[in-house]
């Protein structure tokens, strides 16, 4: 009898322990990459960071607000071009870039959201597609600010503070990009936790009931859309910090489509899932596809189909699916703690 | 501000007393000249509809009479095409459903609507969100009131139809309404569940006004002290509950023998 509470608390500790496994693996992998002498690997990983932050932004809008979007590339583009212009004007402080990118992204997403959040489903998706196309077209056409289709190059490296050296070393850039990505993701998770999560889950589940209980659903969605714009703006700033150049192709429809793909693969309602999905998509497109040149879109398509059929909840649902796999009979224990295989073994002897 | 009512040529005039109308203008709900059409089909054309504090006002009528449309217009779920609605003496015609709910106009739905991804307790929390710092009842007490205390941690989507209806009512009550609009609250309920519903509704504070759209005349008889009968969007009969229920023209309307109804009424 006394074993039951102990076993229950043991199980609780185990399940609490399990939730730390993915972050622990991520941190361990980062430490390995940072410690590695391979600068190309470090640069490749740090260049995934802006796309990852953009994926978090898209997951916030798609998963938490229930609005499948291709339009988050607009605040991403504005954050990136704002940062690029600030850096080219001699303001190289990274915190200023991040704040300016977040603010510019939030303003753009706020203005767009005022028109967009009245719509749902496919209509919203199509309108956001128009936003994605318009952002790339504007970036290509506004020569004086964006450099047109040539883009902006030769952007000075950022520095953490006026007295610190510029972030040019690949290892330093990786540490900086990983820190910003983690901080932004954790901040988004915390902001969407607790009562706000309840409000969004309820409003997304039944808008009429939510309105009849006094919840201004569209205002909630607008706030989420605007906040996600700030996240995308930070992603844009990070794009400049890690790549140091930008062209309209970086903020066009292809980026919008691939990031939505990454969010679906990661699991739309999970922000860590979006991070994992973004890393998976970039790994397939930029690393795995190296061994099959020209076939990156095909590989991405296969990844998408596999994710939809094999992992309906995305990568975020993977740990739970593994937990619920049928356990081998020899691992199953009877309530008294003995293995159910033991009586079978005894009867065999 | 007093609204001058347009007289509906196709319906009978409202029988509400001047005292009730004055109370409705002061602290209740008044809809004047409400007209609503879906394309060319006019589904509601009502010169006046008043709800005074503490009213137990039933709206009955055959299918397609415009009862749910009236409730949706009062709740703000449907946008008003023509007419004016005032609440507490303030014009709320263009106010959203959410604004009206926060102001004290609560409602339940014809098809019980719950938050499918939430537990019953969280559903009630959503309902009482705007009163969470000063709740009249805690979410658990509201669930207990409607008999769902044992289901507090169950997902709302897993409830039976009857329980969903009671949860819909619990969510509406958690919003501490001053006027509660009930759209066929007893539809699909078993006898026991209907008794429970009547216990809850008859036990509500006397200052809460109920507007009840219902087909079950036993529920109307148990709750309503005033009945408005709608037919083809017009007021067909209006008066104290016992008089309207005894009106042979109303009985004939429900039995489907409405030819020459004007003659019957006279």
TrEMBL record, chain A:
<feature type="transmembrane region" description="Helical">
    <location>
        <begin position="251"/>
        <end position="284"/>
    </location>
</feature>
<dbReference type="GO" id="GO:0015658">
    <property type="term" value="F:branched-chain amino acid transmembrane transporter activity"/>
</dbReference>
<keyword id="KW-0472">Membrane</keyword>
<dbReference type="InterPro" id="IPR043428">
    <property type="entry name" value="LivM-like"/>
</dbReference>
<feature type="transmembrane region" description="Helical">
    <location>
        <begin position="296"/>
        <end position="318"/>
    </location>
</feature>
<feature type="transmembrane region" description="Helical">
    <location>
        <begin position="20"/>
        <end position="41"/>
    </location>
</feature>
<dbReference type="GO" id="GO:0005886">
    <property type="term" value="C:plasma membrane"/>
</dbReference>
<dbReference type="Pfam" id="PF02653">
    <property type="entry name" value="BPD_transp_2"/>
</dbReference>
<feature type="transmembrane region" description="Helical">
    <location>
        <begin position="173"/>
        <end position="192"/>
    </location>
</feature>
<feature type="transmembrane region" description="Helical">
    <location>
        <begin position="220"/>
        <end position="239"/>
    </location>
</feature>
<keyword id="KW-1003">Cell membrane</keyword>
<dbReference type="InterPro" id="IPR001851">
    <property type="entry name" value="ABC_transp_permease"/>
</dbReference>
<feature type="transmembrane region" description="Helical">
    <location>
        <begin position="87"/>
        <end position="117"/>
    </location>
</feature>
<protein>
    <submittedName>
        <fullName>Amino acid/amide ABC transporter membrane protein 2, HAAT family</fullName>
    </submittedName>
</protein>
<keyword id="KW-1133">Transmembrane helix</keyword>
<keyword id="KW-0812">Transmembrane</keyword>
From TrEMBL, chain B:
<dbReference type="GO" id="GO:0016887">
    <property type="term" value="F:ATP hydrolysis activity"/>
</dbReference>
<keyword id="KW-0547">Nucleotide-binding</keyword>
<dbReference type="GO" id="GO:0005886">
    <property type="term" value="C:plasma membrane"/>
</dbReference>
<keyword id="KW-0067">ATP-binding</keyword>
<protein>
    <submittedName>
        <fullName>Amino acid/amide ABC transporter ATP-binding protein 1, HAAT family</fullName>
    </submittedName>
</protein>
<dbReference type="GO" id="GO:0005524">
    <property type="term" value="F:ATP binding"/>
</dbReference>
<dbReference type="InterPro" id="IPR027417">
    <property type="entry name" value="P-loop_NTPase"/>
</dbReference>
<dbReference type="InterPro" id="IPR003439">
    <property type="entry name" value="ABC_transporter-like_ATP-bd"/>
</dbReference>
<dbReference type="InterPro" id="IPR051120">
    <property type="entry name" value="ABC_AA/LPS_Transport"/>
</dbReference>
<dbReference type="InterPro" id="IPR003593">
    <property type="entry name" value="AAA+_ATPase"/>
</dbReference>
<keyword id="KW-0813">Transport</keyword>
<feature type="domain" description="ABC transporter">
    <location>
        <begin position="29"/>
        <end position="257"/>
    </location>
</feature>
<dbReference type="Pfam" id="PF00005">
    <property type="entry name" value="ABC_tran"/>
</dbReference>
<feature type="region of interest" description="Disordered">
    <location>
        <begin position="1"/>
        <end position="23"/>
    </location>
</feature>
């Amino acid at each position: 009898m006394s074993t039951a509470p102990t076993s229950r608390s043991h199980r609780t500790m185990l399940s609490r322990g399990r939730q730390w496994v993915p972050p622990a693996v991520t941190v361990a992998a980062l430490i390995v990459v940072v410690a590695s002498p391979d600068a190309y690997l470090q640069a490749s990983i740090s260049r995934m960071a802006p796309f990852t932050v953009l994926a978090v932004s898209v997951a916030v809008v798609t998963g938490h607000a229930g609005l499948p979007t291709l339009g988050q590339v607009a605040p991403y583009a504005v954050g990136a071009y704002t940062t690029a212009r600030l850096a080219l004007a001699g303001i190289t402080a990274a915190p200023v870039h991040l704040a300016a990118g977040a603010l510019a992204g939030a303003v753009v997403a706020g203005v767009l959201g005022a028109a967009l959040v009245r719509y749902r489903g496919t209509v919203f998706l199509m309108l956001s597609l128009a936003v994605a196309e318009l952002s790339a077209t504007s970036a290509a056409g506004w020569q004086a600010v964006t450099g047109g289709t040539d883009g902006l190059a030769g952007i000075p490296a950022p520095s953490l503070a006026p007295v610190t050296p510029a972030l040019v070393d690949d290892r330093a850039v990786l540490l900086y990009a990983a820190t910003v990505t983690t901080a932004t993701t954790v901040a988004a998770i915390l902001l969407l936790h607790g009562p706000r999560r309840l409000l969004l889950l309820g409003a997304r589940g039944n808008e009429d009931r939510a309105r009849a209980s006094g919840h201004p659903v569209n205002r909630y969605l607008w706030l989420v859309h605007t906040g996600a714009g700030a996240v995308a703006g930070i992603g844009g700033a990070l794009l400049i910090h890690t790549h140091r150049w930008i062209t309209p192709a970086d903020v066009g429809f292809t980026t919008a489509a691939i990031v939505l793909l990454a969010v679906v693969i990661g699991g739309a309602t999970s922000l860590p899932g979006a991070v994992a999905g973004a890393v998976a998509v970039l790994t397939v497109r930029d690393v795995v596809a190296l061994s099959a040149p020209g076939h990156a879109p095909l590989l991405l398509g296969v990844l998408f189909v596999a994710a939809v059929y094999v992992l309906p909840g995305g990568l975020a649902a993977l740990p739970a699916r593994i937990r619920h796999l049928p356990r081998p009979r020899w691992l199953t224990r009877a309530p008294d703690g003995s293995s159910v295989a033991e009586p079978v073994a005894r009867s065999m002897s | 501000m007093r609204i001058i009512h347009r007289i509906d040529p196709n319906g009978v005039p409202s029988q509400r007393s001047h005292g009730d109308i004055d109370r409705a203008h002061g602290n209740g709900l008044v809809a004047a000249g409400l007209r609503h059409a879906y394309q060319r089909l006019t589904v509601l054309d009502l010169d006046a509809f008043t709800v005074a504090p503490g009213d137990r006002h039933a709206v009955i009528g055959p299918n397609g009479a415009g009862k749910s449309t009236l409730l949706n217009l009062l709740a703000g779920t449907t946008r008003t095409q023509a007419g004016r609605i005032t609440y507490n003496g303030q014009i709320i015609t263009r106010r959203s459903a959410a604004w009206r709910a926060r102001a004290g106009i609560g409602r339940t739905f014809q098809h019980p609507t719950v938050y499918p991804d939430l537990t019953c307790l969280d559903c009630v929390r959503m309902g009482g969100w705007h009163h969470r710092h000063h709740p009249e009842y805690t979410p658990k007490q509201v669930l207990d009131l409607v008999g769902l205390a044992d289901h507090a941690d169950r997902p709302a989507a897993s409830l039976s139809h009857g329980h969903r209806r009671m949860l819909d009512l619990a969510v509406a009550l958690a919003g501490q309404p001053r006027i509660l609009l009930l759209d066929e609250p007893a539809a699909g309920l078993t006898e026991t569940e209907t008794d429970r519903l009547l216990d809850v509704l008859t036990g509500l504070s006397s200052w809460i006004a109920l507007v009840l759209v219902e087909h079950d005349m036993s529920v109307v008889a148990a709750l309503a002290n005033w009945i408005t009968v709608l037919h083809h969007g017009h007021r067909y009969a209006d008066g104290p509950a016992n008089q309207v229920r005894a009106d042979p023209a109303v009985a004939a309307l429900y039995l489907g023998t409405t030819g020459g109804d004007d003659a019957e009424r006279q």
